[in-house]
From TrEMBL:
<keyword id="KW-0472">Membrane</keyword>
<protein>
    <submittedName>
        <fullName>Binding-protein-dependent transport systems inner membrane component</fullName>
    </submittedName>
</protein>
<feature type="transmembrane region" description="Helical">
    <location>
        <begin position="88"/>
        <end position="109"/>
    </location>
</feature>
<dbReference type="GO" id="GO:0005886">
    <property type="term" value="C:plasma membrane"/>
</dbReference>
<dbReference type="GO" id="GO:0055085">
    <property type="term" value="P:transmembrane transport"/>
</dbReference>
<dbReference type="InterPro" id="IPR035906">
    <property type="entry name" value="MetI-like_sf"/>
</dbReference>
<feature type="transmembrane region" description="Helical">
    <location>
        <begin position="220"/>
        <end position="242"/>
    </location>
</feature>
<keyword id="KW-0813">Transport</keyword>
<dbReference type="Pfam" id="PF00528">
    <property type="entry name" value="BPD_transp_1"/>
</dbReference>
<comment type="similarity">
    <text>Belongs to the binding-protein-dependent transport system permease family.</text>
</comment>
<feature type="transmembrane region" description="Helical">
    <location>
        <begin position="27"/>
        <end position="53"/>
    </location>
</feature>
<feature type="transmembrane region" description="Helical">
    <location>
        <begin position="279"/>
        <end position="301"/>
    </location>
</feature>
<dbReference type="InterPro" id="IPR000515">
    <property type="entry name" value="MetI-like"/>
</dbReference>
<feature type="domain" description="ABC transmembrane type-1">
    <location>
        <begin position="84"/>
        <end position="300"/>
    </location>
</feature>
<keyword id="KW-1003">Cell membrane</keyword>
<keyword id="KW-1133">Transmembrane helix</keyword>
<feature type="transmembrane region" description="Helical">
    <location>
        <begin position="121"/>
        <end position="145"/>
    </location>
</feature>
Length: 308
């Protein structure tokens, strides 16, 4: 009889231990999202990496494995080298001026010297570039920078230039013009983020600094900047990743021209795939862009972990 009771108690125990079920429950709830992300992100990445190791896929019915030949061809391509230099200039200059302009406008909007109604109007005015899509921004600035556009008219009226300049069609000015457009379109992200950080700085720090006899410059460098520095680093890293992959703005203003003057990694990869139909080379170029982005993303993740 004791044996029967023992067997009955033993059979009533669950097959899966409670601790294991409790530990795996969150992952079961997240599994639909994880599966969806894997299908939409991980699977395409694996396919692109596979394509980069084969002969010209899609166009070739029976592609063969060629190893790293596509990567070698990309890295030795002169246009690729030009696109890397253009992308670095475009990205670095955009991030720097995004930060400077965004910080300046955030300090202005956070200043108590300006009336609250004026601040509200300025906030709407300064955030306007963020409202437009890349298509609208490209169209607006192509009209403004047209040889007969308003920019040339103003500069000639001020006697800063003697003739109309084709800003987006000259190799000497195209890259600078596209970079300027991207700076204009992207600074509101910094402005909003830094303004939120400034409003979170404790007022007691400034009161203590005033008691200690600190001037405005000292308060800015020793209180304001250290307090918002984590925000600046985070948004700068994100902006670097996003700007390095900008495509619509460049494509709709210059298309990578003239004569590769504004060729970016994104436009270079697009042309390989859909202009010359070299999908394997385009895949190799895309993987290189992914690796560069992952390097910056790794620094971003480490910085976030250090903050926590």
């Amino acid at each position: 009889m004791r044996m029967a009771v023992y067997q009955q108690n033993n059979s009533s125990q669950p097959l899966i231990p409670y601790k294991f079920r409790r530990a795996i429950a969150p992952y079961l709830y997240l599994s639909p999202t994880i599966i969806l992300l894997a299908m939409l992100m991980l699977f395409p990445m694996i396919v692109v990496v596979r394509y980069s190791l084969l002969d010209n896929v899609i166009m070739n019915k029976r592609p063969v494995f060629v190893g790293f030949q596509n990567y070698q061809a990309i890295l030795t391509n002169e246009t690729f080298r030009i696109s890397v230099g253009n992308t670095l200039y475009f990205t670095i200059m955009s991030v720097i001026f995004h930060l400077l302009i965004g910080l300046a406008f955030a300090l202005l909007l956070n200043s108590k010297l300006i009336n609250s109604k004026v601040r509200s109007i300025l906030r709407v005015f300064y955030i306007m570039p963020w409202v437009f899509t890349a298509t609208i921004i490209a169209i607006i600035w192509r009209l403004l920078l047209n040889p007969n556009g308003i920019v040339n008219y103003i500069l000639m009226t001020l006697h800063l230039i003697s003739r109309n300049i084709e800003w987006l069609s000259l190799t000497q000015t195209a890259l600078h013009a596209v970079t300027f457009i991207n700076i204009w379109a992207g600074y509101p992200f910094y402005m909003v983020s830094i303004l939120a950080g400034l409003q979170g700085v404790p007022g007691e720090l400034y009161e203590a600094a005033i008691i200690d006899g600190a001037n405005e410059r000292q308060k800015f460098w020793h209180i304001t900047i250290p307090q918002i520095l984590p925000i600046i680093i985070s948004i700068a890293m994100l902006d670097f990743i996003w700007t390095m992959q900008v495509f619509p703005l460049v494509w709709m203003t210059t298309g990578g021209g003239p004569i590769h003057a504004t060729e970016m990694l994104s436009t270079f990869t697009y042309k390989l795939a859909f202009s010359t139909y070299k999908f394997s080379l385009a895949s190799a170029s895309a993987v290189i862009i992914l690796l560069l982005s992952m390097c910056v993303a790794l620094f971003y993740v480490k910085h976030q972990q250090a903050r926590e």
